[in-house]
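Hi support team,

I submitted a single chain yesterday and got back a structure, but I'm not sure I'm reading the C-alpha cell output correctly. Could someone confirm the output below corresponds to the sequence I sent? I've pasted both exactly as they appear in my results page.

Thanks,
R.
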Amino acid sequence: MSTDTGSHRTDDRPSAIEVLREARAQLTELTGMAAESVSSFEQTGEGWTLEVEVLELVRVPDTMSLMASYQVDLDSRGQLTGYRKTRRYERGRADAHRPGGRQ
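Hi R., thanks for writing in. Yes, this is the structure output for that exact sequence:
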C-alpha cells in the first residue's frame, strides 16, 4: 500500500511548502509583525532564501499601510539562520522596474 503524499521526497528534508510555512512563522515570531506573503523562494546549496512581505504599520486607508520586504535565510532543515530588511514601502505604491528583481 502506497503512502505517497505527492512530495516525492526520499530524505528527511522538508518540502517547499513546509519551508514556506515555517519561515513565515519564525519571522513573525522574531519580529512580532505579520508575514503576509512570500514574494520569492529559492533553494540554495546551504538551504533556502526567501523574500517575505511583512506588514509593519497599519494605516487608514489600507493602501497607505507600511510594508517591508525581508530576505530570510534558512538551513537545509528549514530553520531560520538569518534575516534582514531589504526595503520598506507603502502598500498601494507600485515598484518602478527593478532589473534582476532588486532596486
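A quick pointer for reading it: The chain has one domain: 16-90. Let us know if anything else looks off.

Best,
Support desk
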